[in-house]
């Protein structure tokens, strides 16, 4: 008690760094959108990892391979924007794909640092194998969550990532 008033217990959300007054009965970490989204993302990522790892890639690597396949010649900057990733994070994520010769990175011209990305033949083969496993993961998720609900969730999440 401070001057006859209860002292607020302030807690910082570990994801958003927002400080909350946790003395109210109706507010908890379960009210944090970031917490709920990150928890769901971990659950869904684990489901997809179980499947696509059979093709020798992670779920994150699969999404990069698929994005590059859809837009051969995409630059790192364009891909980072499309994937809602920091460029440095993308560079780190691409390193194993380049090391394993799944992704080609070719400087567009000597006057620029822009690098165009494309899949190698091995990358296309890996993407084909991973796509089969991805379909299995997609089916498992929709069987558990419901096909219609999954579609609504995807739509909401894509809307969320397009907000500014």
Q: If you had to describe this structure to a student in words, what would you say it looks like?
A:
It contains 6 helices and 5 strands, in the order E-E-H-H-E-H-H-E-E-H-H. With 164 residues, it is mostly helical. The chain has a single domain, classed as Winged helix-like DNA-binding domain superfamily/Winged helix DNA-binding domain (Arc Repressor Mutant, subunit A, Orthogonal Bundle). It has a 3-stranded antiparallel sheet with strand order 3-5-4. Strands 1-2 form a two-stranded antiparallel ribbon. Helix 1 packs across helix 5 and helix 2 packs across helix 5. The mean pLDDT is 86.
Task: Provide a short characterization of the protein structure.
Helix content is 57%, strand content 11%.
Q: Approximately how much helix is present in the residues?
A: 55-70%
> Looking across the biggest beta sheet, what order are the strands in?
3-5-4
CATH first level = Mainly Alpha
Low-confidence stretches: none
Task: Please write out the topology.
Elements: E1 10-12, E2 19-21, H1 33-52, H2 59-70, E3 74-75, H3 76-83, H4 87-99, E4 103-107, E5 115-119, H5 121-145, H6 147-161
Antiparallel strand pairs: 1-2, 3-5, 4-5
Helix pairs in contact: 1-5, 2-5, 5-6
């Amino acid at each position: 008690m401070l001057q006859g008033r209860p002292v607020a217990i302030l807690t910082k959300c570990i994801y958003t760094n927002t400080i909350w007054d946790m003395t109210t009965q109706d507010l908890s970490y379960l009210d944090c959108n970031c917490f709920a989204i990150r928890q769901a993302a971990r659950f869904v990522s684990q489901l997809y990892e179980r499947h696509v790892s059979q093709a020798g890639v992670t779920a994150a690597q699969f999404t990069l391979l698929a994005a590059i396949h859809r837009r051969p010649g995409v630059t790192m900057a364009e891909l980072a924007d499309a994937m809602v990733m920091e460029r440095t994070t993308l560079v780190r994520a691409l390193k194993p794909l380049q090391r394993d010769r799944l992704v080609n990175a070719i400087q567009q011209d000597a006057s620029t640092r822009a690098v165009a990305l494309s899949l190698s033949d091995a990358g296309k083969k890996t993407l084909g194998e991973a796509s089969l496993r991805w379909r299995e993961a997609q089916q498992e998720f929709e069987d558990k969550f419901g096909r219609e609900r999954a579609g609504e969730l995807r739509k909401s999440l894509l809307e969320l990532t397009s907000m500014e």
